[in-house]
Write a structure and sequence with these properties.
With 361 residues, the protein is α+β, with helices and mostly antiparallel strands. It has two domains: 34-145, Rieske [2Fe-2S] iron-sulphur domain (Rieske Iron-sulfur Protein, 3-layer Sandwich), CATH 2.102.10.10; 154-358, Naphthalene 1,2-dioxygenase Alpha Subunit, Chain A, domain 1, CATH 3.90.380.10. It contains nine helices and 17 strands. The strands form three sheets. The protein has a seven-stranded antiparallel β-sheet, with no helix packed on it. The chain has a seven-stranded antiparallel β-sheet with strand order 11-17-16-15-14-13-12, with helices on both faces. A three-stranded antiparallel β-sheet has the order 6-7-8, with no helix packed on it. Strand 12 (215-219) and strand 13 form a beta hairpin. The chain is globular.
């Protein structure tokens, strides 16, 4: 007889077994859309930005045609890495033997290559990676056959535009780096439910949102968070932006490791999870303002968030990671309320299904 009882949470092995993480690195992280950088960091022709993904070094660079492209950070001659960090260049020159590439990735020249019989430089090009600009954010996917982001995350682009109509004017004001001693999935799960909010996040639950209105629904491979903001006279900051949706909070978690979040007052901020190993993740909190210029409200919210919600979540996720390693832990049932709402874990049901599928093959 099939088991018709409640759905239970994932086995602990999904969070603590290094073999599971290696499977994710080889499969999931190499076959999903991942955040690279903000387009404002590649404002001018030749601006480049390097980053790591699924064990690979990559770099994004803006071409003379204005297009941002991403390449594996490896010379096609004898495999030396091409660039480090971020900067600006007219052409990409390998530090090893000075093979030189155009900003499109095509080989321009190499010392003494004319001596090679039958050499055809037109056949040599850096290996390109699927790249999309998504409302000012650069995402990449190592899967050359991956569907576009709008297929993965339906309606997210238009919804975000309605919450952040000035997105094209925004640039990073600050990044906050948050190391957590837990598996990345523990941190993502904690972000993806508000069942714990009223008990553990008093500032967020009284000074930002109205928790009884909180709900999370799947939208393709997106989990869409919606809620009303708290009463205006109880808000912890001035939310009057003059834009539509001024009095709403919303969040769009893009599976598997990125989330756009808009606080009341149309304040854009983001989460980006960067898995380190099975037991460690770094969360990058991004805060944005017009032109990246100093903004008192954004600074205040970044400080408030770091001192309250972030610190509270660090304690929660690190305790969970310890508990997952206990021989006394037996995965309990998820609280899946047919009516959904703040005290339901239906979002975790979807999330854990994606997690299980990611390592099923």
């Amino acid at each position: 007889m099939p088991d018709t009882g409640p759905v239970r949470s994932l086995d602990a092995k999904y969070y603590i077994d290094p073999k599971i993480y290696e499977l994710e690195k080889a499969g999931l992280l190499a076959q999903t859309w991942q955040f690279a950088c903000h387009a404002s960091e590649l404002r001018n022709v030749g601006d480049y930005y390097t980053f790591d993904l699924a064990g690979e070094s990559l770099f994004s660079i803006r071409g003379r045609d204005g297009v941002i492209r991403t390449f594996y950070n490896v010379c096609q001659h004898r495999a030396h890495q091409l660039v480090e960090g971020q900067g600006t260049t007219r052409v990409v020159v390998c530090p090893y033997h000075a093979w030189t590439y155009e900003l499109t990735g095509h080989l321009r020249a190499g010392p003494n290559t004319n001596a090679i019989e039958g050499f055809d430089k037109s056949k040599i090009c850096l290996t390109e990676v699927r790249t999309e600009e998504f409302l000012g954010f650069v995402f990449v996917n190592l899967d050359t056959e991956a569907k576009p982001m709008d297929d993965w995350f339906p309606n997210v682009r238009s919804e975000l535009e309605s919450f952040v109509p000035n997105w094209a004017d925004l640039a990073p004001l600050e990044w906050v780096e948050i190391p957590e001693n837990c598996n990345w999935k523990v941190s993502v799960e904690n972000y993806s439910e508000c069942y714990h909010c009223q008990l553990n996040h008093p500032t967020f639950s009284t000074g930002v949102i109205k928790p009884e209105t909180y709900d999370i629904q799947p939208q393709g491979y997106c989990l869409r968070h919606t809620t009303e903001s708290n009463a205006l006279d109880q808000m912890s900051y001035d939310i009057n932006s003059g834009f539509d949706n001024n009095e709403k909070y919303s969040s769009w978690f893009l599976w598997p490791m990125f989330s756009f979040q808009v606080y009341p007052g149309n304040l854009l901020n983001t989460y980006h999870w960067r898995a380190v190993d099975a037991d460690h993740v770094v969360v990058w909190r991004g805060w944005y303002s017009v032109g990246g210029n100093d903004n008192e409200t954004v600074r205040k919210m970044a400080l408030q968030d770091r001192a309250t919600t972030v610190e509270e979540d660090i304690r929660l996720v690190e305790s969970v990671q310890k508990g997952l390693k206990s021989r006394g832990y037996v995965p309990g049932p998820l609280v899946v309320d047919p009516k959904c709402g703040v005290n339901s874990e239906h979002s975790i049901l979807h999330l854990q299904r994606w997690m299980r599928e990611a390592v099923a093959n």
